[in-house]
Amino acid sequence: MKHLQGLKYIDTVARIGSIRKAAETLAITSTALNRRILAMEDELGVAIFERLPRGVRLSAAGELLIHHARTQLADMERLRSQIADLSGVRRGHVSIVCGQALLPYFMVNQIALYRKHHPGVTFSVMVCDRDEAVDFLTAYDADIAVVFEPMRSPDFQPVGVVPQSIRALMSPKHALAIKKSLGWSDLLSTPVILPTRANGVRHLLEEAVSRKGGELQPQIESDSFDFIRNYLMNEECISFQIDIGLPSDEKMANFVSREIDQAAMPGGHLFVGQLNGRVLPTAAALFSNEIVKALENRYNE
Fold first, then answer.
1. Which residues contact 186 (CB under 8 A, 6 or more apart)?
2. Pick from 86, 102, 213, 220: CA 20 to 30 A from residue 191's CA?
3. Three-point CA angle 18, 20, 26, nearest 5°
4. CATH code matching the domain that covers 166-266, chosen among 1.10.645.10, 3.30.930.10, 1.10.443.10, 3.40.190.290
5. For 22-56, what is each residue's pLDDT tens digit?
6. Through-space distance between the first and last CA atoms of the chain, rounded to whole angstroms
């Protein structure tokens, strides 16, 4: 739709923060792009962007316009998906943000299963922490967010919630590996590797410390669970993960997981959500329903 092209230009410049770099992305000249922006500013009677020494940023009026632009572009994508469905060929694109725990097992299986039935649908999957999910949704950079203990926001509309317990990870040679369940004193007695503070597991751990007292001994902090799991093989320490981030037992040759007494470390909840008030494109809406069903079948039996 030609009338949306100008909105796409504005959206691209806003995301990149530079007219020159946005023009390269859009495969037009920076002069032509700047001319389109000036024409839209003239039509609105206000500046959309503030020109800075190194790039541009949205003005107050531009912030209002960009919300309208992204809504219109998302609605058009939804319309295209619905029109494609009329022919019986489901197409479209689904953009997802999720915590690292979802990536290696659950999300891989769900996307593969969905594409088996709907090979015309493409996906993008990005990692986010609990405090980033809403930003992705409100910027229309993601259709769906699947996050453990996300930050509460009126812009986040949950469509599915399932419980998750937190488990301790360690080498099979760790002294605590002989136990089936760990108490609070066990967690305080050994060095730990912690995820960074933006992680939902870290958030619940700090809440537990605040309630119960004592002090965890973080030797290392990392935002990479791959690094954490591999490091457990090199030093006698423990880390933590939610249920859905663990492989099946037969695949856990290099580390083991142990339950944590609920009195010591209560679990949390995994949320599937979208931008409040947004009607998702058909492909995204269907995939959202599928992953909610899969999670509920797995954890709410």
1. 176, 179
2. 102
3. 100
4. 3.40.190.290
5. 888 888 888 888 888 888 888 888 888 888 888 88
6. 46
* Nearest residue to 112 (alpha-carbon basis) of 232, 231, 287: 287
Phi/psi at 168 (5° precision): -90, 135
**46 CB-side CA count, 13 A:** 9
The share of the chain scoring above pLDDT 90, in percent, equals 40
Cα–Cα dist 277/288, whole Å: 15
Level-2 CATH architecture, domain 2-68 = Orthogonal Bundle (1.10)
In DSSP terms, which residues pair with 181 in a beta bridge? Answer: 259
Name the least confident of 66-70, 170-174, 227-231. Answer: 66-70
Class level of CATH domain 90-163+269-299: alpha beta
